[in-house]
Specification:
heterodimer; A: alpha+beta; Alpha-Beta Plaits; two-stranded antiparallel ribbon; B: mainly alpha; two-stranded antiparallel sheet; 17 helices
Chain lengths: 255, 419
């Protein structure tokens, strides 16, 4: 009487453990650089801190071209102390990480990698849980706490919007002006060389502190610069593999 | 305690006053919730630096307090300790309420509540939040099924639709299967609610493997404690409840020993974290041990939340005194909620700089806004109201109720034979 009952119990236990294990497998798969195969282009940005004067044009151009509300900055310019009496600035767009914590944690795959390395947001899919904001080490993500109504103060002085305004309740961030890159490529232009195919912040920079280009192209400006000059990334220790590189402020260049 | 039993006709019975009080809180909560849906999250005090606050803490706490359901159902149906079955029924009902509370606060908290179903459709199987959402929804379905026999006891339903009521109570035959599903799903999401914090490299205070372990252990303690506390409190205020104190005493004793395990893990966790300086983590710990959260931490979590109830519940003399036991159980519940609140807030208000050079630490601020308090209170009041109604009309605390399968063996094995 009791023997078959125990067998059933055992079976159920094994089944329970099995189901649990199966469900857990995907969660514990080791983090990969990206679930998409890299495309022919890998976009990267270099920011030269010797040149940056902290004027903030990049932030304003970004606001206009991406229709970002005034209380949000996809691109922030931060004062980071002085070198030989010169104020140093650090401009911080989204790092477009190769191992992006935001892509890992997003429950609905609203954040994802494009084949060209850009970390994209699907604003129609985002549920506004803000887990990505909590996970991002760079504070590069902003939540739309309010509906952005009315005119954008950065328009038209700093440019015209090229993408749709995001609705209230979703998280938004910089995407390397993917719309300019895609449109430019389709017209046969080279992002980083032709201004119409280059991110707005790079184009707007009056001192050319930002350089944009294709890492896959060894002759691109970014490839050459990164070969010739020492560069660093923010919080490299985290292993996020950012695609935004910085050239350290050099006092001689700043004279 | 209720009007029906008293001979003198009274205008307002304590029951009516209680229901009225909760009703007012629920109505205010609904109004506050609608205001949030209408105006958006800008009327909260949440910010880009502290995007999760009071609601997440309520959400985490109500899921933790529901852990009595899976653990006691596993004890009854998988370990075969049938005498705990009546407590498991109470725990299941509390679990059902707790998970609906969690879903309500989540609905408030997400920026696009109209898209809550996206995680069902667009799967990021690598995301812990996706896994938690799926588990919570699946487990809520399990709880609904597990609660069918409880709802079948509603007198009105029995009279009105006896057939339906009969069908609902027959779901009980599947209790062992549901217990397995519940155990699997709960082991996953109760732990991964902690892991959800523990996997975030950007937050050194959270980034460690044992948050998940601490979350599930504290959840089991809190869930069982709430179940026993609610049963004892109900037994004191209404005659509609029938408790077998020896069962409650036993579960309370188990809670005491779970707290020993919890304290053990907590100690080594804290030791490993405090041993050397780690930017962000050490500052976060300082918030807890000597900063603004230190009262919560030392008194709420450790002293009153763990050590005092641990002693009171393991010690037979204090445990057998009803008021001491109830006090200890209430302290456990408070301690678990305080742990959730502290975990969430301490990791968020420490802002670690990403600038090169010296790691600079910033501090963010967060105090919930009135609308967060009111809507949060509304959710809690809904939970209390649902439980009170369950005690009154569904006999969720009745240790003399014997479910049908207690006739043993044959009936339970039927579904297995049908497979």
């Amino acid at each position: 009487m009791s023997a078959p009952k125990i067998n059933r119990r055992d079976f159920l236990k094994v089944a329970g453990v099995g189901v649990t294990a199966l469900a857990g497998l995907n969660l514990i798969r080791p983090a990969e650089a990206s679930s998409v195969t890299p495309g022919p282009h890998q976009w990267a940005m270099v920011i030269d801190q010797s040149k940056c004067t902290g004027c903030g044009y990049c932030t304003l151009a970004c606001r206009a071209h991406n229709d970002v509300p005034p209380e949000i900055s996809w691109n922030q310019v931060i004062e980071t102390g002085t070198v030989s009496g010169h104020q140093v600035f650090l401009a911080r767009p989204c790092m477009q990480c190769g191992h992006a914590p935001c892509v890992d944690v997003c429950p609905v795959k609203a954040s994802y990698y494009r084949p060209d390395g850009i970390v994209m947001m699907d604003y129609d899919r985002c549920i506004g849980c803000r887990y990505c904001e909590v996970a991002c080490p760079y504070g590069a993500r902003s939540f739309n706490w309010e509906t952005f109504n009315g005119p954008n103060p950065a328009v038209p002085e700093w440019g015209e919007p090229e993408v749709a305004r995001r609705p209230r309740g979703v998280v938004e961030k910089c995407a390397f002006c993917y719309q300019r890159i895609d449109r430019g490529l389709s017209l046969g232009m080279t992002p980083g060389v032709d201004t119409d195919a280059t991110p707005a912040c790079v184009v707007a920079c009056p001192v050319k502190a930002r350089i944009f280009g294709d890492m896959k192209d060894p002759e691109s400006n970014v490839s050459k610069l990164l070969r010739e000059r020492a560069s660093y990334c923010l919080r490299e220790d985290l292993g996020t593999a950012p695609r935004v590189y910085y050239l350290n402020a050099n006092p001689q260049e700043m004279e | 305690m209720n009007a029906a039993n008293s001979l003198k006709p009274r205008k307002i019975s304590p029951w009516m006053a209680w229901v009225g009080f909760l009703g007012i809180l629920v109505v205010t909560g609904v109004a506050a919730g609608l205001l949030v849906f209408w105006k958006g999250l800008s009327i909260t005090n949440l910010s880009d630096l502290v995007p999760w606050g009071l609601w997440i803490s309520i959400d985490l706490s109500s899921i933790a307090m529901s852990a009595g359901a899976f653990s006691l159902c596993a004890v009854v149906y998988l370990l075969g300790l049938k005498r705990f079955e009546p407590v498991a029924r109470t725990a299941t009902f509390i679990g059902l309420i707790g998970y609906t509370m969690a879903l309500l606060t989540l609905l408030l908290d997400i920026g696009r509540p109209d898209r809550f179903w996206h995680s069902m459709v667009y799967w990021n199987k690598h995301s812990l939040l996706w896994e938690v959402t799926m588990c919570v929804c699946l487990y809520l379905s399990v709880l609904v099924l597990e609660s069918m026999p409880i709802f079948a006891r509603f007198d009105w339903l029995k009279k009105r639709w006896p057939k339906l009521s009969g069908m609902m109570s027959r779901v009980h035959h599947y209790a062992p299967y549901l217990a397995i599903a519940g155990l699997g799903l709960s082991m996953l999401h109760q732990s991964s609610l902690g892991a959800l914090y523990g996997v975030l490299k950007a937050r050194p205070l959270w980034y460690r493997p044992d948050v998940s372990v601490l979350f599930i252990i504290s959840a089991v303690a809190g869930g069982m404690a709430l179940t026993v506390f609610a049963s004892m409190l109900s037994a004191r205020v209404t005659k509609r409840v029938n408790v077998d104190d020896s069962i409650l005493d036993r579960v309370a004793w188990i809670v005491g020993w779970i707290l020993v395990g919890y304290l053990y893990f907590r100690f080594w966790d804290a030791l490993a974290m405090t041993y050397t300086y780690e930017p962000g983590r050490t500052e976060g710990l300082r918030l807890l041990t000597s900063g603004p959260l230190s009262f919560n931490f030392w008194v709420g979590e450790i002293l009153l939340g763990t050590i005092v109830p641990m002693v009171l519940l393991i010690n037979k003399r204090t445990r057998s005194i009803q008021l001491w036991r109830m006090l200890a159980l209430a302290l456990v519940v408070g301690g678990v909620a305080a742990y959730r609140w502290d975990t969430n807030l301490s990791g968020l208000i420490i802002v670690l700089s990403y600038l090169p050079g010296e790691p600079a630490i910033g501090y963010a601020r967060y105090v919930p806004s009135l609308v967060e308090f009111l809507s949060g209170a509304g959710v809690v009041a809904y939970g209390l109201l649902a439980f009170s109604l369950g005690v009154r009309y569904l006999k969720v605390i009745n240790h003399q109720v014997v479910e049908e399968h207690a006739e043993e063996g044959r009936e339970v094995t039927q579904p297995a034979a049908a497979d």
